[in-house]
Design goal:
The chain has 233 residues and is an alpha+beta fold. Helix content is 36%, strand content 21%. The protein has helices at 3-45, 160-167, 199-230; strands spanning 62-69, 75-77, 87-96, 102-111, 129-137, 154-155, 171-178. It has a 5-stranded mixed β-barrel. A hairpin with a 5-residue loop joins strand 3 and strand 4. It is a multi-pass membrane protein.
Amino acid sequence: MTARRWLLLAAALLGAALTARLGVWQLDRAAQKIALQTADEVEGARSPLSNTELVGSPLHRRVVLRGVWVADRTVWLDNRPMDGRAGFYVVTPLRLAGRGDAILVERGWVPRDSADRTHLPPLVTPAGEVEVEGRLAATPSRLYELGTGAAGAIRQNLDPAAFAVESGLALLPLTVVQTAPAGVDDGLLRHWPAPDLGLQKHYGYAFQWFALCALIVGLYVWFQLLRPRFHKP
């Protein structure tokens, strides 16, 4: 075998090994996300936590908290669709009963005024102590945003640490995604979308890498082994 053919063989083996490894890596990423989702479902099935059990709480754990809404610090997260309509996610801090701190609560969704996007609909916020049911998340819903974002009632995203400084509230580094009305029917929708694990993306990339691996092997076999036999003088 000539040096050129050895070089082609080495290149083909290297290319096939690399693309196959990348395909396996994508499948491993998908398996990791499935395992993470399973762990989150296990946490979600456990008994809910109360005000006194929030320290070190795992994400996606159910909670039943008591506190008072800090209504004047409500933030409206823009560009959040639900059921095919444009609208806002409503986020209000809840000052926890029996504690000196508060936690952000993603309370639900309201539609946006199609004529004036800065017009905010009426919001029913019960006064006095309420009980809030939900599940824990790291932060309120986030979208891609250039820059640091604007202040005010209507925002694209809400950073809990920055909002704690802005509001003067001692906010926990957690968010509650509310799953039921607190006290009264507040008119908010809570058809929260299921988390997108991106599994189809990983499977698609894996297929592409395995297909490229097969193509490299097929081209080598054809041009270096089969074709020369068919074109012998």
